[in-house]
Amino acid sequence: MRRPRWGKSVTFFGTSGASTESPPASEDEAEASPPPPGRRRGRQPQRGTQPPDGRGVVVCGSDRTMLRVVTELVTSGEHVTAIVNPASRHFERIGELGAHVMGVRVVSEAILRRAGIDAESDEASSARALVLLDADDVRNVHTALTARDMDPNLRIVVQMVNPRLGGQLHSLLGDCVVISGPSLAAPAFVADALEDDELTWVELGGRRMVAGPADLIRDPHLTVLADTTSSATPDLLPIDSSDPAGDIVLGTGIRSVWRTRDVRRAGWLMATRDVFDRRVRIIVAVMAGLVAIGTGLTHWIANIDWLRALYLAAGAVTSAGIEDDKFSEAEPWAKVAGVVVQLTGIVLMALLTAVIVDSLIGARLSRVIGGVRGRPRNHVVVCGLGTVGARVLEILAERGVAVIGVEQDDDAPGVQTAHRLRIPVIIGDSANEETLRSAGVQRCQSVLAITNGDITNLESAMVVRELNPDARITMRMFDHDLAQRVERQLGLGHSRSVSMLVAPAIAAAVANRRSQTTVPAGRRVLLLTEVSVEQNSVAVGKRLGELDETGGLRVLARQESSEWDWSPAFDKTLRPGTRIAVAGTRSGLARLLLATRAPHRSESSERMDP
Asked: How would you classify the pairing of strands 18-21 and 177-179?
């Protein structure tokens, strides 16, 4: 069996212009064997699509992303076996899509073997790929390790919540594909909030990069993609540019921008004011009055100097005690008065302590310190600070956009991210009008309602529309039919689904389709992608620099072993298996594909290339 062509662990990151295409089928892939007996056929695949071989795909999970991924795979003609928890509300729906459903609560080695993952010494598994979509990263890793032991050549696609753990999967699993849902979906929400598509994020050559105007991309710029001096006919892939400030370039990050002061966190000063509220001020005022009265009476009656009298009165009121020798010769009524004052002070001190503790517990330090100071304007309000919300905050902070977060759970991942980035956070229900007023939605620029609940997001959007009719609203909604009706009938703004953004990337990884990212340049576009040099192709034996075409194609990086070289020597000879990262026009990329692929491609495969 030929080993899958995934050379390393790959992470997909979302972009506003990402697309995928299927690689041409090889001779051994063209002869697809029939599906395993007993497997249910899915819905009719799209015209021109078919599984790359007769083997199927095993998908494990139970959440809403599972439903989208199964739909995507079945529609593309894959034979899908879905391992689903019977308690999932999507269990019956997944079966209706045409997938073979196995209802189990715990995925074990025996279950994976029944699903078709069991490579023997001379035969491959009847399943060629495993997709893991469990919300628990530990379960995904456990299942992936088990499957890897059962079939070393199995293609494994994993959706990970923890990006740090996902980056370490290669050392555990070898060849695998990691899908980061928050990283894929967050740029789309940010683009909606800012109505800005100037920046395009891309994962290329083992690096996460961004393409956009030169004044937004931090130095050093890896390459100039276009000279947009003339927006109608921009100069693509120029050798040099007459106006570098107007270029579209490729870099590793955006410039650091000083964040506007329209939004400020409450800070310790505001926190102190909130803790010492009206109740505390009343108690302190009463105690101060008692100290003042006691000081005067002690001075005039006992003939004690003012400083000493103040000390004695304060000690009595604050329960610090009274020097008994000073009152030993006093009148009985004075002694009784001193006791009454001391008892009153004990009660007031207890009330003061109780009120301060109640303020701290009721407000929570993270809520008090991270709140909003003043009246913010022209900012972005992010409702829902889960994993997606945390990534949205990071991107907005990088862009220098004033932002306020709203989250009901102060232990959510995005709350910790907000504290790290010094972004104000309102702890409360995002569907509550007072909570949204505290975030200043009446004067905001846009609102992102991206909690995990469709109804909560819908309620938040309706409240925002009442408070600020001019605000741009983007909702995160899973229910596609509800989203369409809300947009059409209620006019509450745009809606997006994280699962719908993730599903095409997973389907592309399963089918080993090449990922392309489109970068707009005026009225023209460039494509960023990776291409492999195949055995017996025309490109074998040529120098790397011979692939470059002025205005049509540019080689950015080269990989032969596990590491990518972003400063390649262009006199190097191309070998079979060499992988290159390129930027080019559609016609330039089409010519590159003709040069790098083996000569046995069919005409039907040629039509699939750009």
From this structure: unpaired
